[in-house]
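Homework help board

Subject: predicted structure for assignment chain

Our instructor gave us this sequence and asked us to write out the predicted structure in token form, then describe one feature. I got the tokens but I'm not sure how to describe them. Can anyone check?
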Amino acid sequence: MAGGLWREEAEADAIGTEYVRADFVPAEAAAKVRELLKRYTDQRIAFYLARDQSQVGRVNADTAELQGELWSSVVGAVTPQQTPVTALVVSGMNDVLNSQGYTQAAWWNRIPVAAWGLMGLIALACNLLLGYGERRTSPFALVLPIVVSISIFLIADIDSPRGGAIHVSPPRKRGSGRSRAMVANAA
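My token output:
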């Protein structure tokens, strides 16, 4: 999941960039692209907020449908007049669609079972060695097991983007200039 955080930011940046690049297509097509990008952004936020698999499946299906509409709207807008500038719009939409796949792959990239086994073995060995070397009972003997337990708990929680005890929601007020422009134009 650690690699996923910057992927989410790259995905948001790709959407914001394409929103601005919509200025390079005719006004009617630009309005359609912007409206679809707003709906697409809502779907992507719903993906990040979804907690159960049925909701995720529904969001993924809606996202795939929107991706098809986005691609068709851009290709339809630039086909009559193909210029290097309109190629930027197509390239930007390609980045939007690819970034979703990269983000999805980062969410699927989990800590391997072998690594979990190794962490468990190391924790067990450390605690056994501590217990073996401890001749008398001391309150400090509990520090290592507690620290190791908390560390493994946090690693497991970070590795579970849809579950776990720590939940991070996307900020609603902050954002780059492009995302603020999208929100301002939505009103």
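Reply (TA_rk): Your tokens look well-formed. For the description, you could write something like this. Residues 113-158 form one domain. That's the kind of observation they're looking for.
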